[in-house]
Amino acid sequence: MIRNYFKLAEEPFGVTPDPRFLYFGSQHREALASLSYGTESNRGFLALIAKPGMGKTSLLYRYLESLRGTARTAFVFRTDCDSREFIRHVLLDFGIDAAGKDLPAMHEALNQFLLEEMRAGRRSVLVIDEAQNLDEDVLESVRLLSNFETPRTKLMQIVIAGQPGLAEKLSRPSMAQLRQRISLVIRVAPLKRDEINAYIDHRLSIAGCEDVALFTAGARDLIAKHSEGIPRKINNICFNTMSLACALRRKTVDRATVLEVLADLDLDSLIEKPVEGTAAGEEKPVPVACAPQRLTERKRRWFQSWAPMSAIAVALGLAAVIGVNYGEVRAASPLRRIADPPARQSPVSAQPPTVQESTSPSVRPEGRALRIAQGQTLYRISVDYLGEYDPQILEVIRGLNPWLSDPRNIPAGQEILLPSTPKSQEHGHSSAAQEPSSSLQEAGKE
């Protein structure tokens, strides 16, 4: 869907470590050069350590690609295993038959293979990804692999790559022997602000995008701030913002689109946390300057079928207009006064009252009734119907609806009362002339 809408040859922000999309920032270039130098210098053990999502696997694929034709390589990423399973994975990736062999037999088979490759003038390189998951006894087995050597050279170069947890394991006193054999420790730091822009442009260009201005400057600033320079986070935010822009039929990704996606990706908001200093049964305070509320249900409907839903919305709007006009004519008709007897006075109900909205500008009832649709929030209702959202409006709405216990979670189908006139019109000003509030600026009013 994204590819067709934005006319792309392929997905620019995929989840697979495709080496073609690897962006060589200063840190990635330095890391690749260090891997190549350590291999050419026959240093034996190298370690590559970076935070999750920094592109370690893509970097390792590019490193292995540079060795094609000059070395025999094995790439092991299944690290939740014991020593015997680990050695079996190594043999299988080198193309050595490990069926029916015990651990000593597998070591002997590996030693013979490495000697044959050395005599043929080829290096043997073993790359272990996600090495932070290896148990200490398996790391000890990795250390023993470095004993495959001749008096003059190492038979196998070993690269262990992992997250910062690997550095924590290697720093333990029990790992002193392995730590001493590591010749180079290569780090990859997060991308800088200018590199994030270049990273987005690079991936869009590889995917066939003709206009890299697809992401506005405001959107890029938010992506840089919330991704923390981690490529995987950048990919997630960019993919979701492009998906939302496609669903909303927008040709660019702006600041408001990024804000809504960031709200959807915020898992912390789904965890109920007690508020300090709040007594039992007391309402929690509602933040005023907040990010846009989630419209997950509405977006799901847009993604599934945006065109039919638009047609339904237009039809419902026409039906509502016709219904209001018919009600006004029927109420003004003398025949209706004869046909309809006066309504009997009913006792006071516990449910919130329903007040018809007046169509005459001179009539100012206390409030107007609105039935809550699925996915609507008090923030969006205030902006759409009153033109703004601030603490004063919130207090007026809660005064009209004293039964409203949680303004952030209103059940679908419930009716609430809204002020008949926005606050700005109480002072004789049009709401369109108001300066956007801080919360609306955060909602994407650039």
Describe the protein.
The protein has three domains: 91 residues, Orthogonal Bundle (Helicase, Ruva Protein, domain 3), CATH 1.10.8; 165 residues, P-loop containing nucleotide triphosphate hydrolases (Rossmann fold); 61 residues, Roll (Membrane-bound Lytic Murein Transglycosylase D, Chain A). 46% of the residues lie in helices and 9% in strands. The longest helix has 37 residues. It starts with a helix and ends with a helix. The strands form two sheets. It has a five-stranded parallel β-sheet, sandwiched between helices. A two-stranded antiparallel sheet has the order 6-7.
CATH topology of the largest domain: Rossmann fold
Strand neighbour order, sheet with most strands: 2-3-4-1-5
Classify the secondary structure makeup into a structural class: alpha/beta
Percentage of helical residues? 40-55%
Order of helices and strands: HHEHEHHEHEHHEHHHHHHEHHEHH
SS element count, helices: 18
User: What is the tally of beta strands?
Assistant: 7
CATH H-level name of the largest domain... which superfamily?
A: P-loop containing nucleotide triphosphate hydrolases
Low-confidence sequence ranges: 285-295, 324-365, 423-446
Which value, in Å, is the CA radius of gyration? 32 Å
The span between the termini is 28 Å
Q: How many discrete domains?
A: 3
Task: Tell the overall outline.
Answer: elongated
Share of β-strand residues: 5-15%
